[in-house]
């Protein structure tokens, strides 16, 4: 049996993951040193020609870009990428967020979805406190194939959107809100107890996880359609 991972001592890089799951291993940058991120990225680039790291600080990104100048860093989402998807999946992912404070999480979802091969669009600052802002984009919302809804506070935007469409809706609670918001826990529980049928919920601030799920859905649709 051939080796399915590269042992770097501090990390065992799963170079076989794309074969098993459809997508390569993705690096979670928080808590890792800049040297470790760079070494893991280089192994993934050697194996797949592309790499993505989430939650990378600007200080770490500066070091990595100096050693890997063809990489790209987005400071809002804190995502570092090298290369891009070789093909696009059918359909479109639409990312909506309630307020400007939710942008880092929303952009994490956008940048991840694009890198994974999804056509992606975004509509920002359409929270329910000004519902007319959301309804102004009704045509775009109902045309999307998968919707990612990013919201803090009480998280009502996810329920409203899920009640407007007949497509999968993935809700992302954020840690944006005042004291009783409990750093996103209130939003998370609100989204979990939504009365809108079919609403899925990922972990607090997990824009990456929502995008990965959306890409998996479009990947399945594309593969089924080609048979």
TrEMBL record:
<feature type="domain" description="PurE">
    <location>
        <begin position="91"/>
        <end position="223"/>
    </location>
</feature>
<dbReference type="InterPro" id="IPR000031">
    <property type="entry name" value="PurE_dom"/>
</dbReference>
<protein>
    <submittedName>
        <fullName>Nickel pincer cofactor biosynthesis protein LarB</fullName>
    </submittedName>
</protein>
<dbReference type="InterPro" id="IPR039476">
    <property type="entry name" value="P2CMN_synthase_LarB"/>
</dbReference>
<dbReference type="Pfam" id="PF00731">
    <property type="entry name" value="AIRC"/>
</dbReference>
